[in-house]
Amino acid sequence: MSNTIAAIATASGVGSIAIVRVSGTKALDIAKKIATNAKLEPRVATLASLYNYNKELIDQALVIYFKSPFSFTGEDIVEFQCHGGNIIAQEILDTALSYGATLAKPGEFTQRAFLKGKIDLSEAEAIAKMIETKSVDGAKILARQLKGELREFIETTRDTLISILAHSEVMIDYAEEDIPKNLIDNLKETLLKVESNLENIVKSSIRRKGLIEGFWLAIIGKPNVGKSSILNKMLNYDRAIVSDIAGTTRDSIEEQIKIGTHLVRVADTAGIRDAKDYIEKLGVERSIKWLDESDIIIAVFDASKEFDKEDIKVLELIKKAKSSKVIVVLNKIDKGLNINLDKFKDFDTIKLSAKESVEVLISKIETTLDSFSSSDELMLISSRQIESVNKAMFEIKEALEPLERSELEFFSYHINSAIDALNEITKPYRHEELLDKMFSEFCLGK
Ligand SMILES: Nc1nc2c(ncn2[C@@H]2O[C@H](COP(=O)(O)OP(=O)(O)OP(=O)(O)O)[C@@H](O)[C@H]2O)c(=O)[nH]1
Ligand SMILES: [Mg+2]
C-alpha cells in the first residue's frame, strides 16, 4: 500500500489534453524530478517544463500538487495535465515509473480512496458507473449517489434496526408471559415498514436499471405481423429483411437508437409459432427469452386479421412476461380493423401502420422511459447492492417469527445479519476478495 502508483487517467487517442496521475509518498519527489525547475504549491496549477529520465524536454504542461490528506486518494497526488495524443502522456508515465513509481492497477486510485476512508463503497461504485452511464438521467442518479445519498439511507436504516435491537433488549427483563403485547407490535410494525421501504427501492431500481446501462426493448409477435417493418421504421432505414413470407426473421436483430434522452437497444425477434425446423425453433426460443429480459416489450398483432391460435399463444406469453412494461401494437391498421380489441384491455394499446409511421409508438416509448426515470426515489446501481438489500429483507422476514414467540436470541441474530448485509453496501471491511474484484472492473487511471 505504501508504494507510489502512476497511470494515465485520460482515454487514449487524440485529444487536446491528457492527464497523468501519480499518488503516494514519493509523488512530490517524482514530480520535482520531472518538472525540474517548478515550484509546486499545494492546489496551485503551475506551468512547468517537463523532462524525461534523460533530461530531455518533453512538454510544457500544467502540474498540480494535492497534499495529503486533501486529495482524492488521501495520499500526496501530483497531476500532470500535458498535451494530448498518445506519446507525451506515455513519456511522462514512463519517466515517473523510472523514478520509482509502479504502474497503477485498474481502479487502484479509487481503491486507495476507499481504504483511506475518503469515500465508501457505494460512492466508489458510483464513480465507476458514471464513466459508463448511457443517459443524462443516469448521470444525475450517480451524482446523487456520489454525494452520499445511498450512504445516508443505509445509515438511517441501520440506525432504525439498531434501535429496534435496543428496544428488544428491554424485553429481557420481563418473564416471557409478561411481555407487553404492544411492545412486540410496535417493533413488528417498524420492521415491516423498513422491509417495505427496502422492497420498493429494489423494485424501482430494477425498473430503472436501463438509465445507467441503456434500456432493452424487444419487438415480439407471431410471424408476419410486421415486427421487422416496425424496427426499420424506428431506425429510419431498412435494417431487417421484410417479406410476406412468415418466418422471415430467424434470429434476433439488435440495434441501438436514442429516444428522447434515453439510449435504447432494440431487438427485432423471430416470429413466435410452432417452428418448422430446428433453426427456427432456436430462434423462437430466443424470442421467448426476451420476454423476461427486456425492459419494454412491444407485442405486435395484425389488426386487419381476426384473432387466431398463434395470437392466443403470444397473448399468454406477454401476460406472464417479467419485463417492466408491455405495449401492444395493433399493426396494419391501413388494411382495416378486424381483431377483437377486448383481448387487449389489460394493456396499453397503440394502433398504427408500419407502412406509414411509427411516431406514436416512439412517443409512447419515450413517455414510458421518462416515467421510469422521473422518480426521485433512491436507486441501487449494481446487482451487488441489490443482492445485499435482498439479503437484508430476507433476514428481517426471518426475524418476525422469533419476535412473535419472544425468542430474543434468534430475533437479534437475524436483525444483526440484516445490519451486516446493509453494511456490505458501504463498508464491507472483511471482504478483500470482493474489493479486489470490484475495483479491478474500473478503468485504468481511475
Ligand atoms: N399493409 C401493411 N402491410 C404491412 C405493414 N407492416 C408490415 N407489412 C407487411 O407485412 C409483411 C410482413 O412484414 P415483416 O415486417 O417482415 O413481418 P415480421 O413480423 O417481421 O415477420 P417475421 O420476420 O416472419 O416474423 C411484409 O410484406 C410487410 O410489407 C402495415 O402496416 N401495413
Ligand atoms: Mg421479421
Topology:
Layout: E1 5-8, E2 17-23, H1 27-34, E3 45-51, E4 57-66, E5 77-83, H2 87-98, E6 102-103, H3 108-115, H4 121-132, H5 136-146, H6 149-170, H7 181-208, H8 210-213, E7 215-221, H9 227-235, E8 253-259, E9 262-268, H10 278-293, E10 296-302, H11 309-320, E11 325-331, E12 348-351, H12 359-374, H13 383-404, H14 408-426, H15 432-440
Parallel strand pairs: 1-6, 7-9, 7-10, 10-11, 11-12
Antiparallel strand pairs: 1-2, 2-5, 3-4, 4-5, 8-9
The structure holds guanosine-5'-triphosphate and magnesium ion.
Magnesium ion (MG) binds at residues 227-228, 240, 248-249, 268.
**Ions and ligands:** guanosine-5'-triphosphate, magnesium ion
Order of helices and strands: EEHEEEHEHHHHHHEHEEHEHEEHHHH
Quick one: how many beta strands? 12
Termini separation comes to 16 Å
Tally of separate helices: 15
Helix content: 40-55%
For the biggest β-sheet, the strand order reads 3-4-5-2-1-6
Rg: 29 Å
Residue runs with pLDDT of under 50 for 5 or more positions: none
Main sheet characteristics: 6 strands, mixed
Q: Approximately how much beta-strand content do the residues carry?
A: 15-25%
The computed structural class is: alpha/beta
Summed over residues and divided by their number, the pLDDT gives a mean of 91
Shape: flat
